[in-house]
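Figure S7 source data.
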Amino acid sequence: MNWGMIDRYAKSLIREAGHKIRVSFFNTIDIESKADANDLVTNIDRGIEQFFIKRIRKDFPDHKIFGEEGFGDQIDSLDGIIWMLDPIDGTMNFIHQKRNFAISLGIYMDGMGILGYIYDVMNDDFYHAMKGEGAYYNDERLPALESTPLELAIIGVNASWVAPNRRIENEPIAKMVQACRGTRSYGSAAIELAYVASGRIDAYMSLRLSPWDIAGGMVIAQEVGAIATNMKGEKPHLLGQDTFIVAKPKLHDELLTNYIQLK
Ligand code: 2AM
Ligand code: CA
Ligand code: CA
Ligand code: CA
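Tokens for the predicted calcium ion complex:
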């Protein structure tokens, strides 16, 4: 497999898609709700996914595509080459803020992440990695992450998990919030993963993410030594939704052991 060629192809496709998204702000954006009133999708999410799929199917007919908006393939096994795509990660930010959203893409072979991309479209910030070849922020090689103690750590966590909820014990999470240096919530799982990989935050966690949210970021995180698992400490399963935590080495262990208690 010529991964170098696929890498160049994917990067150019992502940049072209980013351009289309930036131009889309000059037109009307149609907004709809999916599973609930705050689960939003737009014609741009759908159009961008279709743009990727049309190109990939034409140029790599034996590859499969697993995308959030459902125009890709039905995926029930990780065999072969699969492009895991979120055309816009952070749709709520896309709609409300017109920034802080990303194109997220991971290319996997037989379940192993080979290429990973997170493109923060409005900042023109590109995070990318190839397995074994290191991770990059634009043209800058990202250094290996070093451990940070919790009291010096910034944790990416959504405030809703600190309030009573049916998925996680909120008291230990509240303790974590008090023990760490600060918390952040950016509203795009992919961007938060990119921030962990580039050392801007020290950990990120979410109770429900889909394969396309994390597939690209996991390849990037792996290259700098971040640990990415589900909240049981296992490899996140990439065929459906799962819990997720990515963090610097020792911190990952400390958070899972002392602060994360699933119901
Ligand atoms: P999205 O914008 O592609 O839907 C926001 O907190 C983060 O969680 C985003 O990465 C968002 O991705 C994701 N997200 C939003 N709603 C979700 C849902 N119902 N299930 C899983 N992930 C979701
Ligand atoms: Ca969505
Ligand atoms: Ca997403
Ligand atoms: Ca999305």
